[in-house]
Specification:
418 residues, mainly alpha, Clc chloride channel, globular
């Protein structure tokens, strides 16, 4: 009995250690390559060369690794084969190369894929059954997300929210929370410290502010859906026009270089963390900065470079929040923080996790407004998701949240499984 009670806390802790160690290695390496990229301008002109190497590696040696986060979610829903061991080193090297050479990408996808690959390797060694393996993969998402962003509670909820796991929900909840907390602790113990974001003071109930937040939520949802649409449009255009896959990031690299030269600086290359910092402190950012970051990232990822989507979505949201605050006459720092979490909430179909993330990152002072912004963004994003598995199965399996609040269409409700 005691063994059964400790089973998932212990296995969740194992996942957390794997997620924490791999995330720490990644974040330390990412900090170094970001510094090198910032002080070595000519590296940008090697982006097409890096694209060719990444394209060749994934085309001839990547196998299912090229499916990225969607592979992890796919295996949770419908287990078919082990997540490739090579996914972890390939996504690590590919993402670091993208950032070193000036591509616009994020980091969450890399952390989750590394965690998922290592965790599935552990499940194979432990000879876990399919349901237990699913729980481990769910926990790996929580561990990777919680560790890389320093949001353990949001990481656990995020892992449960982006996919459906009713049959193993209880075990998944325990394992995910344990993995996310342990992963975050391990990252800190290994010397990685997340940026401290400005805390919001108490924002009282306001009949004037609430309508402005809802207008902003609509814009945040549209921005999230727009990011998904543009990224996939770029990807499909490259697939249609460039038959040989390794050539796609080469061409994409030249296009990112051209776009950078047209803009005149490197603001939108890499993570663009300075834009987040400026936005959250109420400073001025370019009015259309959110759109430029969206285009840079869609072009980078859509053409075949490797990296995550979440940090760019944070940047898009924070800068859009500043722009909307100016238009609506609203508090700049508050709207930047709302956009930070709400654009991602709409793009990932994860309003609950993102509300909790707002609480963890910015304090409890504006939690009601985080909930309004994230919920509204989710509604106005039209339920598109950056995770392909969820998007492809949306007709047959609308998310549990959509069913709960009755937002699916009548035809979807008819098709939905009980």
């Amino acid at each position: 009995m005691a063994v059964q009670l400790l089973r998932w806390p212990l296995l969740g802790s194992l996942v957390g250690v794997l997620a924490g160690v791999s995330s720490a290695v990644f974040l330390i390496s990412l900090e170094w390559v970001t510094e090198q990229s910032a002080k070595t301008d000519w590296l940008l002109y090697l982006l097409p060369v890096g694209g060719l190497v990444i394209g060749l590696a994934y085309h001839y040696g990547g196998g299912r690794s090229s499916e990225g986060n969607s592979l992890i979610i796919d295996e949770i829903h419908d287990p078919k084969a082990w997540v490739p061991r090579r996914m972890a080193p390939m996504v690590l090297i590919g993402t670091l190369s993208t950032h070193l050479l000036g591509g616009s990408a994020g980091r969450e996808g890399t952390a989750v894929q590394m965690s998922g690959s290592l965790t599935d390797g552990a499940s194979r060694i432990l000879r876990l059954n399919p349901d237990d393996r699913r729980v481990m993969l769910i926990a790996s998402i929580a561990g990777g997300f919680g560790a890389v962003f320093g949001v353990p509670l949001a990481g656990a909820v995020f892992a449960l929210e982006v996919q459906s796991a009713k049959r193993v929900f209880g075990a998944a909840l325990v394992a995910s929370l344990t993995a996310s907390v342990v992963g975050n602790i391990v990252v800190h113990q290994l010397g990685v410290h997340h940026s401290l974001l400005p805390q919001l003071g108490h924002v009282g109930f306001s009949g004037v502010l609430i309508p402005k937040v809802m207008v902003a939520a609509m814009a945040f949802g549209i921005a999230g859906a727009g990011f998904i649409h543009l990224t996939h449009s770029v990807k499909h255009a490259f697939e249609r026009m460039v038959r040989w896959a390794p050539a796609r990031p080469v061409i994409g690299g030249f296009m990112v270089i051209a776009l950078t030269l047209a803009v005149g600086d490197r603001t939108y290359n890499g993570l663009s963390l300075d834009l987040i910092d400026t936005s959250l402190h109420g400073g001025p950012v370019p009015t259309w900065g959110f759109a430029l970051k969206l285009v840079f990232t869609a072009l980078t990822l859509g053409s075949g470079f490797v990296g995550g989507e979440v940090t760019p979505l944070f940047v898009i949201g924070a800068t859009l929040g500043v722009t909307l605050a100016g238009v609506l006459g609203a508090p700049v720092s508050l709207f930047a923080a709302l956009g930070f979490v709400a654009v991602f909430a709409g793009a990932a179909n994860a309003p609950i996790a993102c509300t909790i993330m707002g609480l963890e990152l910015f304090g409890p002072g504006a939690v009601v407004y985080f909930a309004l912004a994230c919920g509204g963004s989710y509604i106005f994003s039209t339920h598109h998701s950056i995770y392909a598995m969820e998007r492809d199965n949306a007709a047959e399996q609308p998310s549990w949240l959509a069913r709960a609040i009755n937002l699916t269409s009548p035809s979807q409700r008819t098709r939905a499984k009980p």
